[in-house]
Amino acid sequence: MQTMMNNTAPVIPAATQDALDLLLKDRLNLATTVSGSALYGTATSQSDDDFRCVFLPTKVEILTGHVFFGDDNNKANKRLGQGDIDIAGVSLMRYLSLLGRMDMITTELLFAAQSDALRVGPKHPVFDKVFAQREMLLAGNSNSAIGHARQRIGGLFPSNDASLEPVRAAHEVLLRVAEGNRLLDEPEKIAELAAIDGVEVITQQNDRFVKSRDWAEMTEEERATGLADGQPVFIKVAGKKISVSNPLREAIRVVERPLNRDAEQKRVVSRGDAVIWKDAYQGVRMIYQAIELHETRALTFPRPEAPLLRRIRGAEMEVEELQDVISEAMERLREVEVAYPFPEVPCKETTEALVCEAHEMVVRS
Fold this sequence. Notes:
Helix content: 40-55%
Radius of gyration: 22 Å
Number of strands: 9
Number of helices: 17
Distance between the termini: 14 Å
Strand order of the largest sheet: 1-2-4-3
Order of helices and strands: HEHEHEEHHHHHHHEHEEEEHHHHHH
Structural class: alpha+beta
Shape: globular
């Protein structure tokens, strides 16, 4: 593993260094941090050791175009326990792509790497440049975090949350349209969905740096054909995209998923608990992190709400209190999303300059 770094950090335990070397091989490590409960401040004696890293591809990988990928030393997805080391990493190009969609784990690494206590080994000057340009690189919204939180929290997710209102409205329209129809192929039907507050009908851009156009910005031909820029038009609701070329029954299934609690209840029953507390703990954490990210453009580790998270994971509260925590947090998140929005897409020029400079450095070395 190449070094070429300038920032000091605590000495890496031999077992962790061996696992990191095995993952990276000859790739240049830009930054590695602890992850999971050790990062959040909720670790116990039974917690495994999680790490996340970002690296540069090798010269051969860059010259052959293999630059957008990730790797994981737990490819078999085994259940890890105390003493096990789980390290996952992504290439710089993939890392920046995830950052431009506000992927939460990717964003955690960005801020955790600034702490000597949380960073594993030094960080490379390339990653310093990424952090310095973060305002140009971090984009998107918290839909992904909310979606993961909803899956984790299950039936305790507030049924009156604003994110579910457009889902219900879209579901009603799709059910009505589905009577005698197989496809969502008439402009007036799509226009009815576009008129719902919280539902978007958008173009699908091949270039992730180009903003999607909405229904009002499309031409008459694009509306009539359901095609824009050679791609099907998409309906976007609750963070999910549904192509207008998909069968209606598939569109209905996608929309029904966040409304249907049956699958979640089966998971609860299979566990024999009224609440899957560990899942609830992760869901609440993601909501709190999304709030802080919008409010401060930063993430704090260990998490300030770690005592609350430990109580949730340990089932040290009543279900009613947990529901109040979730409802209040979701209400706050909705407020800060409106007050402190992020850019829709990252800066193309900044992203390309960082990648080109870093890749050129590897190729010339």
